[in-house]
Amino acid sequence: MTNEGTSTRDQILHMLKVKGSLPVSDMAVELGITEMAVRRHLNTLERDNLIKSTLVRQAMGRPTNVYSLSQEADELFPRNYSHLTLDFLQDIKEIDGLSKIEMLFRRRENRLEETYRSHMQGDLEDRVAKLAELQNDKGYMVEWEKDENGDGYRIQEFNCPISQVAREFNQACSCELSLFRRVLKANVEQTTCMAKGGDKCVFQIKEAK
């Protein structure tokens, strides 16, 4: 896609975010381009599930389509969940102590284990591959490989969606390590951690003895 196309697409998304649902005619006037050009961009955005259309009846004339952002498009705009989460966790720590923080992270670990365990089948390699897939779905940008000596596996996470929380509350990291051990039913050790200054998180995995 050209820079011009990308710019127009972003303008449409911003317009729908600020002004709400709009017909093609209003967008064309706002952007200073033809309705046909607007429709081309809308087709692409609709294909990418970033907008949705609704047929609206008018007092006179035919019904017309109006366009609005989808839930998926909301994720393109800035979010500040990590600061909100950190504020809540700090408040809980001050009110109820560190033990309550530990309990919250363990409850999260237990929920994830229940979800992940239903996907874990086959030998250790199958389970490692499935765990990497599940973590990828959560935005961890995971790669996995077999050790060169053939007696284990390595999982590498190049992104941590909860990195700001993990830097303040290392319980997030220890619970992730515990989760991996439980769902893989294997010996798992973490050798590199982003929350402790590493450029990625690395886990070494071996069959449980």
What's the shape?
elongated
**Helix/strand class:** alpha+beta
Distance between the termini: 53 Å
Helicity range: 40-55%
Instruction: Kindly provide the name of the CATH class of the largest domain.
Output: Alpha Beta
Task: Tell me what the structure shows.
There is one protein chain. With 209 residues, the protein is α+β, with helices and mostly antiparallel strands. The chain folds into two domains: 8-75, Arc Repressor Mutant, subunit A (Orthogonal Bundle), CATH 1.10.10.10; 80-207, 2-Layer Sandwich (Muramoyl-pentapeptide Carboxypeptidase, domain 2), CATH 3.30.1380. It has nine helices and seven strands, in the order H-E-H-H-E-E-H-H-H-H-E-E-H-H-E-E. The strands form two sheets. Strands 4-5-7-6 form a four-stranded antiparallel sheet, covered by helices on one side. The chain has a three-stranded antiparallel sheet with strand order 1-3-2. A hairpin with a 7-residue loop joins strand 2 (51-56) and strand 3. Helix 2 crosses helix 3 (35-47) and helix 5 (81-96) packs across helix 6. The longest helix is centred in the middle third of the chain and has 20 residues, at 98-117. The chain starts with a helix and ends with a strand. 19% of the residues are buried.
